[in-house]
């Protein structure tokens, strides 16, 4: 992702520390990092502010996600993996977020735009390039450990 904004990540001994700001798209920033730095695969954790977040719950019978979008939540935890699918970056993340009443929601992250404040992500890079493949029995992408 090329723009005039300050850097969004620094390199660490095990990967990267990424700090996203208001308006940043989580998936676009992670995908850009994978392309720009040729990240073979990685795991990540994060937390911070979500201006808009869409969670999904996978319906195995219909083989699709049922999405629900929320605004202005605090992302209390996010975990995920970075891999490749058909030569393109593939982000898989789950998270939990809370509102001002301390009610929480969570699930598979389908999209997230950072709200006020920031979103901090620790990315641990793995040496092997990992890919996602569709598992026909469930109709969803799964991480493959095969080369």
TrEMBL record:
Gene3D superfamilies: Hypothetical protein, similar to alpha- acetolactate decarboxylase, domain 2. GO terms for molecular function: DNA binding. Keywords: DNA-binding. It comes from the Bacteria. Residues 10-146 form the PPC domain. Pfam families: PCC. PROSITE patterns: PPC (PS51742). InterPro entries: DNA_bp_PD1, PPC_dom. This is DNA-binding protein.
